[in-house]
Amino acid sequence: MLISKMKDVFQVAHMSNDAVRMVGLHGIGKSQVVEQFAKDNDYHIETLFLSQNEVADLIGIPDMKDGITYWTKPVWLKRMEDANQAGKHCVLFLDELARAPIEVRQSALQLVLEGRIHEHNLPTLDGLRTLIVAADNPSDIYQTDELDDALLDRFGNYNVTVDVKGWLKWARLNNINSVVTDYIAEFSDKLHFIPEDENDKGATPRSWAKLSDLINNAEKLGLSKAIFSEMLKSKLGETVGYSFLHFYNDYVKIVKPEDIEKAIMKGVDKDLKKSEKNFTKISKSIQSITKNIEALAASELANKMKDLTKKDEKWYDILTIYLDSLNVEVFVSIIKTWKEGDDSEFYLRWSETVPNFYIFQKVLRIKENS
Fold first, then answer.
1. Is the full-model pTM beyond 0.85?
2. How many CB atoms lie within 10 A of CB 119?
3. Was domain 3-159 assigned CATH 3.40.50.300?
């Protein structure tokens, strides 16, 4: 299953008081998709890295009072209870379950099976228990233990794979540096790259997200090209590092929303929607800019303009003219993705902005049949 679809699985699982386990390669965004689900739904999330935990980290430690032994409450559970008292649902994320010591996995079994540890219950709100999500790497590739059937049976188990479009959407929402997203839009096979040379390092969605921060800070410091090159190779490996460095050095040539805006505004009157007589000139100038853009890169450029409409409504018109300049197949693909996906509300808002005169007849005709 594409990892971007897991948020829907989490929602249904929570409504059904079921637990979810994801199995996928490292760095593809398993942690991020759980965190994004919690953020989008205003849930409180607690993450336990089970490979680094001891039993006491999960269940507390024994103590005695009035001759009776009881177990102290672990701090992560106290934070969940506080969030629950404030009216929030909770997510407990069990990372690296299959790497955990056997005694830790046995303790996790009670959490998943009963929603409790000793006398402490996981929070419940509106009849729904805490959502439990676990994540693992494939045991046939990584050094992980096989989980016993009793534990596996407590989860809905999903093999997850990376989703380029889903990752790009996540990247835009999380302000990932545009040079990173534009590179991935053009070279989608590099999002999760496993080199043939075992001495080379690969690239993962996680390393691209971290690289964004490194680029931002390197540019602030005015880092030398030599050091910057070494930094890229340390995060992406030799193969992808050199490829990205070449792209970065030529980034001024990459088409950005501002380039489309500038090309349009050169040929319009004061009111964009009254510029029918100039449309042919405008359209040709944009086509000359976008003719060599790959389909995924064209879609990413459209999505960036879509996001800009939140800041300034002029981008609705610019976006429409840009879409009109694309070939029919790419245009329809973008529109269908908006119309049938998470951006359906935006699609409706955009549809209402398309002016009904001849310069946009192509847009209107395709829109009606999409």
1. no
2. 9
3. yes
